[in-house]
Design brief:
alpha/beta, elongated, 354 residues, two-stranded antiparallel sheet, 26% helix
Length: 354
């Protein structure tokens, strides 16, 4: 006699149904045994928070009444290296430069003139948050500019990495959480002047403004015009430096680096020995409203004063870019001036005005 075999699908279905019933009713029974009744939830007691006991260290806003000096010259702001800047980031600094009579021009690299040519008529150069490297020709042009008395102001910021999404629609999640550092870009120029930006950020767990990375710096050089007499400058997640120049801002024993374990008195701003190159590890301090915290506002005014000084030593290579007004050519003897030379000078003058 053939024995009828049970249907395996029906058996599996029955076992699954019994397991479901056990989990549903068994779970409720277990919860009742632990003091919970069906359909009722007793929330735990939440302790009251004494708001008066919470004393966060908040930043103190301290706007400074600017006292512009009578400056002269032309300052170039280089934005040709994919700079990680917003439209109004430089407004506080631009307002101060304009108040000092400084002509400010942006160089984006798209015009007919090279950076070297633009620097011939400049007295200062500002490089802020570049994310692409300077090539050898650009570095040489800037080095010659500084050697001739031009002033260079550099600033970079750990919170301003390489911008991966400027022309991209899709966002790379890896790049969003692990952005590419822009330190190699600023160092491609800074290293020419024996200044090295460290790929880190400074923080202080004891003396800060609202956030442990907003460090309150009290160690300020008391001799240089940029920091003399100031009491505190607040920088927001600043880079530290290695530099052969003078330290203008440096941390105390509680200010530490995210990568330089065990080191203290870390430099946050430096100036070269010839006093022509000034570098700082933060950009946020000069933007609105952070420039009004601590002594940042007065510090920014002093940076503008420093840039408003014309110490350029002109050479024939700068001709005729250093002429600011019309030039009268007076012939003192017949035959000394060629008409073709006068025509060439006129063409060069018109090119400079454009």
């Amino acid at each position: 006699m053939n024995q009828i075999q049970p249907n395996s699908n029906k058996v599996n279905g029955l076992l699954f149904f019994l397991f479901f019933l056990f989990m549903a009713f068994g779970g409720r029974w277990a919860s009742n045994q632990n003091g919970y009744s069906m359909g009722k939830y007793t929330s735990p007691e939440i302790p009251e928070i004494d708001s008066e006991s919470i004393n966060p260290i908040l930043p103190a806003y301290n706007p400074y009444p600017d006292k512009p000096i009578n400056g002269e010259g032309r300052v170039i702001i280089d934005i040709s290296h994919d700079n990680n800047l917003q439209d109004n980031d430089l407004d506080p600094l631009l307002d101060r430069l304009n108040a000092r009579g400084i002509t400010v021009d942006f160089f984006d690299g798209h015009g007919d003139l090279s950076l070297k040519t633009e620097l011939r008529s400049a007295t200062g150069l500002i490089v802020i948050a570049p994310t692409s490297r300077y090539d050898e020709e650009e570095r040489e042009s800037i080095r010659e500019f500084v050697e001739d008395g031009g002033r260079l102001f550099m600033a970079a910021d750990p919170t301003r990495p390489v911008n991966q999404y400027a022309d991209e629609i899709e966002v790379d999640l890896y790049e969003a959480f692990f952005p590419t550092s822009a330190v190699p870009a600023i160092n491609s120029l800074a290293n020419e002047f024996d200044i090295i930006y460290v790929d880190d950020y400074l923080y202080n767990l004891n003396d800060y403004a609202g956030n442990y990375r907003n460090v309150n710096f009290h160690n300020l050089d008391d001799k240089h015009q940029l920091t003399n007499g100031l009491e505190n400058i607040i920088l927001f997640a600043a880079h530290s430096f290695h530099s052969d120049g003078m330290s203008l801002i440096w941390g105390d024993d509680d200010t530490v680096s995210s990568v330089r374990t065990g080191e203290t008195e870390l430099i946050a701003a430096t100036i070269s020995d010839d006093k022509q190159v000034f570098a700082i590890g933060d950009v946020t301090f000069m933007t609105t409203p952070y420039h009004t915290i601590g002594d940042n506002d007065e510090f920014l005014s002093r940076i503008a004063d420093w840039l408003a000084v014309d110490e350029r030593e002109r050479t024939l290579e700068d001709f005729p870019y250093h002429y600011k007004h019309d030039v009268d050519i007076v012939q003192i003897n017949q035959g000394l001036i060629d008409v073709r030379m006068m025509r060439m000078m006129r063409m060069m003058r018109m090119k400079n005005l454009k």
